[in-house]
Amino acid sequence: MKLGELVKNPKGFKITGIYRISRFEVKTARNGKAYGDCLISDHSFEVPAKYWDIPTERVALFQKNGVLRIDATLDYFKDSPQLTIESVFLPLPAEVDQSLSSLGMMAPRPIDDMYVELKSIIANVGHEGLRKLLTGIFVDDRQFAEKFKRHPGAVKNHHAYIGGLLEHTLEVAVGALDYCKRNDKIKRDILLAAALVHDIGKVREIEVDMLGMGIGFTREGKLLRHISLGLEMLESACQSVGLEAEISLMLKHCILSHHGQAEWGSPVEPMFLEAELLHYLDNLSAKTEQFYREAERAEPGGFNKSATLRREIYRPGWE
Amino acid sequence: MKLGELVKNPKGFKITGIYRISRFEVKTARNGKAYGDCLISDHSFEVPAKYWDIPTERVALFQKNGVLRIDATLDYFKDSPQLTIESVFLPLPAEVDQSLSSLGMMAPRPIDDMYVELKSIIANVGHEGLRKLLTGIFVDDRQFAEKFKRHPGAVKNHHAYIGGLLEHTLEVAVGALDYCKRNDKIKRDILLAAALVHDIGKVREIEVDMLGMGIGFTREGKLLRHISLGLEMLESACQSVGLEAEISLMLKHCILSHHGQAEWGSPVEPMFLEAELLHYLDNLSAKTEQFYREAERAEPGGFNKSATLRREIYRPGWE
Amino acid sequence: MKLGELVKNPKGFKITGIYRISRFEVKTARNGKAYGDCLISDHSFEVPAKYWDIPTERVALFQKNGVLRIDATLDYFKDSPQLTIESVFLPLPAEVDQSLSSLGMMAPRPIDDMYVELKSIIANVGHEGLRKLLTGIFVDDRQFAEKFKRHPGAVKNHHAYIGGLLEHTLEVAVGALDYCKRNDKIKRDILLAAALVHDIGKVREIEVDMLGMGIGFTREGKLLRHISLGLEMLESACQSVGLEAEISLMLKHCILSHHGQAEWGSPVEPMFLEAELLHYLDNLSAKTEQFYREAERAEPGGFNKSATLRREIYRPGWE
Amino acid sequence: MKLGELVKNPKGFKITGIYRISRFEVKTARNGKAYGDCLISDHSFEVPAKYWDIPTERVALFQKNGVLRIDATLDYFKDSPQLTIESVFLPLPAEVDQSLSSLGMMAPRPIDDMYVELKSIIANVGHEGLRKLLTGIFVDDRQFAEKFKRHPGAVKNHHAYIGGLLEHTLEVAVGALDYCKRNDKIKRDILLAAALVHDIGKVREIEVDMLGMGIGFTREGKLLRHISLGLEMLESACQSVGLEAEISLMLKHCILSHHGQAEWGSPVEPMFLEAELLHYLDNLSAKTEQFYREAERAEPGGFNKSATLRREIYRPGWE
Amino acid sequence: MKLGELVKNPKGFKITGIYRISRFEVKTARNGKAYGDCLISDHSFEVPAKYWDIPTERVALFQKNGVLRIDATLDYFKDSPQLTIESVFLPLPAEVDQSLSSLGMMAPRPIDDMYVELKSIIANVGHEGLRKLLTGIFVDDRQFAEKFKRHPGAVKNHHAYIGGLLEHTLEVAVGALDYCKRNDKIKRDILLAAALVHDIGKVREIEVDMLGMGIGFTREGKLLRHISLGLEMLESACQSVGLEAEISLMLKHCILSHHGQAEWGSPVEPMFLEAELLHYLDNLSAKTEQFYREAERAEPGGFNKSATLRREIYRPGWE
Amino acid sequence: MKLGELVKNPKGFKITGIYRISRFEVKTARNGKAYGDCLISDHSFEVPAKYWDIPTERVALFQKNGVLRIDATLDYFKDSPQLTIESVFLPLPAEVDQSLSSLGMMAPRPIDDMYVELKSIIANVGHEGLRKLLTGIFVDDRQFAEKFKRHPGAVKNHHAYIGGLLEHTLEVAVGALDYCKRNDKIKRDILLAAALVHDIGKVREIEVDMLGMGIGFTREGKLLRHISLGLEMLESACQSVGLEAEISLMLKHCILSHHGQAEWGSPVEPMFLEAELLHYLDNLSAKTEQFYREAERAEPGGFNKSATLRREIYRPGWE
């Protein structure tokens, strides 16, 4: 059950489901017994909950896990809903992903599916050096690959959920492949490789919580931003596979210029076709996700004032 | 023969071919006889030519036609090439288009082919009102359709040749269709219709010469620009077919906002998904043509300083 | 009595007057009886009021009217004033306008007087086509004329009250007439007509409440803004009277460019004298009203931080 | 005769008239004799002229005077017109002003008339302190008054001719008086005084030639600009007449803010009504002169690309 | 004791110390007796305090002094600390400064020491006219000198405490002296004099409270800003000592341009070496103080979001 | 002799000196013999020269060397000076540097002296890791050190001569040391190291000619700019010496942010004290050189319109 719908129910209503633990603290009640004081949330709602007389072994469950299966009873305190927890369980791994997804905290498409598609795209890159480079980064560097697969695309702006970075990267790459079908003047392998690596620096820029949701920026994320971090990671990968100089230089330029303008974070503007196209393909993917989500917050035929887009977003009056 | 290659030949060299007449004047030679003083050009080069003792009936040929088949002899004046015209002929209509195309003054793909594709796209629009609207504009309004088919996409920036507006419009529309295949959240018919009408105002904004090449802006083009002109044309078409209010409003917003920002000519930023996507799809088509053409002017592995893009454009060192 | 002065009186004080009903809801009291819970306001103050045991027939009075004559008794709840309504009456139409005006919710000068002046200005336009055009818009189109006469000039910025649009339009037109007296190089009829039509799009852009006060923007107001809406309305009127092309084009340019710069909403800058003058005459009227009102909120010799003007406004220390 | 019309005449044509001497140098001809080499101009055209065997006493005439009455014969050198001077005379003072005016180098209205009007406006200022201040500046300070009366309003932008500063100042002041008639909320004397002093710093900012035409900026004009120079002059005048502090402060603010924005040279934006109005009244006068002059350079129904206005200016197709 | 540490202590804890009186009012308690209701603060914390049965002669103490020595007892009201004042004393002047300094409300270095250094720098200026000018302003004009010595450098941005203006001015001047040692191309006396006078206008721009802390801007500070005020003060001083024109002009330009750009408040950019250097030396001093203070508010190794610097400031993880 | 002074001498004048060969070509004279056609220049002037009947062995001299000792005779062609070369010699290495320096093409101070100072500064860095890092870059990496020592600081803007990069770097570093003496809150070793490495990327960004003068940008210089190149070089050096993470991160941030703002090329603004100071110290050095050089081009008491500084630069009227 979505937490936003709790209030439609009367006091005493029983709920069960997998939710995020946004905050957890052990406190002492007036009767001297320990109780758990926590906030339970799904992607858009947050509800306070109390676990009276919490058994000691359950405390660790809360402290080590970001999501738990919860059985609770609804109560109201000054008209606001509040839950009394009856019992908690560790959900199965498969259950966790499924519930994250249904709560809007994970990419709609299964991460493993997307990763398989990513690898297949890489395997089809014609230029040997680029194929080696991409394989080195996204497949052979297991530690990076694991992080990348589940990393969010942003803290707030777009694809801001688990697996969002992979999803966005794949959208840009597939968009590039599609576009190249109609345009034989484009250096397809350059554009494709640039699409795949353009945001790798976000893995080091965005700080994630226990679950993998973005909660802010890392120290190096704030001081260097993902473009410079991505350049550093790419340079190291290019060195490893001995990529030829011009191609490595073009890829670096694509990362550096993909925000398009100085005021949007790119100190150089795109200076060749593939770099320019990357900028627009990146935006197509990012803005589709962002506009759709922002429009959903409006009534059909109405507007939603979007803080991240700095304008009002219209939602058409029919589906 | 491309005029840029003339200088590789010696004085007395004979050339024959179809060229543009950029300027023509009848003057009087020192011997008291009339001669034709003109400039012959292809898309990238311009050469002065003299037609001594020009027969009176040929004068009209020059005055009424933008391109002519020319037989001439090469001469040099202060190291610069100059032609002496021996005879001129009116080329066949088919020959004209072919030569315009080979001179870079017409879209590479035949205009009629492109128009057939445009009509087939319109015929497949699902929404009846929109299909009527588009048919009304691009098919039934014969006068507009004839102009639109051969109109240039710009005076200088992109698709600046005969048929360029149709070519660009088609690229944006096909790009929209492609993109929608992967994204079921987009209102496909809105995006498609917006893609087709986004630049119709250019037919009234850009002034063309006898051939159909853009040579500047019309009076209303300067005072109102193509966005306002397009809005006016769309409003009139919407009224004709009685398009429902919300859809007509959304299309108008797409035209109004498709430059993306106030400083780029759009007084409102895109406020829904389809309008935002149009902005990027428009750029993909425009920038592909523009970057490719600007890069061609550089040596492989070198840069070309582009005035219209305000930056240097790199041409990769390999093909 | 101004509501801002209520707090100078003791509990039990009786007031009577015509006020705006900003909010009205029927609720059930603890004793099970219906009561009316509302907010009563004048232009600068808002006070909660309760109407205990509200008679059923009075409920409709509240629901159908924006202003009512109210008899009430003053009370205090946690030091804040609150009214208990004794009885309400429907004010006479003449009373309504008078009280709106004294509450700062209507233009100081009677609307009918201003409209008479507007018509007399139009009747004196020398150019026949323009006189027809203006008569068509402001006199013959009765539906538009009725809306225009009472429409506010803005939601917040300037002339933001009933009749404000007419008042502002008249000020710009009279300013144009005055200025032309000293300058015979100006095409007076163009400037005058441009002054009269420059903001007609606001009738469709600004959403008004039951009373006629601006409360936000309409759907088309947000998606197209008043400049594009005004262009559309003007084009339609020009077609009706068959205005000559150049004059119609110049008027459209005046509407399009009257905000002066891209960042202020005009995609083209004024390109002839009359368009440029309109921009400054528009500002003279708008800023006189806005600065005067903002300064009134400061103490004499002090400053008021104006949100709409984004600066502090000084009020001189003497009158 | 306007110099721009010279070329319509054949070699040997005689002209006589009063012209500006833009450049004059004594050189030695091949025959060893001295000749005068000069440039003769009116406001829009410049023609080279030779004075063969120039009599010594005439050399001084050229060196000490900016305009001379010239009798000359037309010749052509490589198709360009060139004059051979037959004789020169010192024109009468009245003749000079008249001819400067007809050449577009002096305000159309006689300077003395304008100055009389200025003094009469000052005499009618109600506030005694302000009247004293303005009398002190524009009447009693004879040295300043003499300069001010003939100073140009700019080097290039607007009112860029002798007497232009006085003409512009008067236009702004009269505009202020007119506007105040309709608006009793404006502090008329403040606005009027601000209008009169707003550009006094230009007397020290613009460097003039012998005739009084602006030819560039003075050292202090470049380093401080006319706003800071005007503030300094005003402060000194305020001290002299002991003007009350608040009024003096308000006038200074009006000078400081009259360009309206930081990017246009005003470090503070107008912060009270009269300062804001001054900004628009200043623009009305400046832009009327500038647009009219720029439009005159276009054909009727055509455009002139204006360098100072950074846009194309349209000239209507009828008078 | 720092007020921020109060809460570590239990109810009934006794404190004594010199604090700022941020607000003081005499009220009547329920028992009908007068009591003092005030806010006690140091630079970063504010605590409410009550002085029950306040003796009449103590009321004046509070009203006339910004800091007092206070003996009080700690209490808690809804978990927030609150003080009950037992007695108050007037601190000795030396005590006041010492405590202001320890509370971060006064420059760390004694004001008299800094002033001695300032005078010694002036005495060593080589150019006689400049030495006279500076002596006239900073030494002979006793009234100005007394204000300048204790004036804050800003209300919020940098050196925002008593003596901050003197401290900042000295830092810029010493920086100039240091820099000149390595660069013999700089006109040392010009740069030094410019450094000393660059912010003198702040004495008239910033409004101070009884203690001397900046609490806002004066009327002339808002309407003219410190750059124009400083120019006026400098002009008057230059006149007094009859400084040669070029030097006076260069100093004025230094004041006018020292913010570097129009958008930062300087209507002209620096146009000679010394003016340009002043801009950077001014920033070195200002930013050192500001960054250091903002970084102190972060944890070591963490960030502080600075409102005045509009970015996050990093504090290194080690000392 | 400075080439700019050539024109003061008559035809036939003999000159001898070491000059730059800006262009050299072997051509065939009308008499069928080979001659050398070249341009001889010093930093501010360029003169054409002919070497008639050039001996074959001299051709190589011209082709392999950027500067030569030249004996020539002055001639005039259409009033412009032209040289006839009598003989050329290879100058001694010491002579070359000396003459480059006197021609303004090399830093005024000997490169080896500056490099010794640089090493001594590095040797005195207290933090062991930073000392190792700097030694690794500037001393142990012999290839880089040799390039760095003679590299220009820019193509045009500042320190645009051989050794200019070393000179500028040293100025910033010494400025940092000086400034730290007075401010114990600065992390001296961080600031110093940042000063030394801030422009190392210029070695890869600026393309130099045979002599070492900057003639444009390299391919990677255009596509990545010196900030990104410097980051890459720094990262590699940090890895080599295993510098601790926080310090390496802070240095990278200093390079990335040292241009201060997005519009000046830094995608992040300085976020800690040392990074902010670097920005101003960098400017102090750069602007001192640039303003001084630009002012030298003006007359004393006059202005020079500087293209690189986009403003007029004033040169004081006395030395």
Automatic annotation (TrEMBL), chains A, B, C, D, E, F:
Enzyme Commission no: 3.1.-.-
One GO term in the molecular function aspect is: hydrolase activity
The alphabetized UniProt keywords are: Hydrolase
HD domain location: 165-287
Its EC top class is: hydrolase
Gene3D superfamilies attached to this UniProt entry? Hypothetical protein af1432
Name the domain of life this protein comes from.
Answer: Bacteria
InterPro entries given in the database record: HD/PDEase_dom (IPR003607), HD_domain (IPR006674), HDIG_dom (IPR006675), YhaM_exoribonuc/phosphodiest (IPR050798)
UniProt cross-references to Pfam families, sorted A to Z: HD (PF01966)
NCBIfam families of this UniProt entry? Answer: HDIG
User: What name appears for this protein in its UniProt entry?
Assistant: 3'-5' exoribonuclease YhaM
Give the organism the record lists. Answer: Sporomusa acidovorans (strain ATCC 49682 / DSM 3132 / Mol)
User: Which gene does this sequence derive from?
Assistant: yhaM
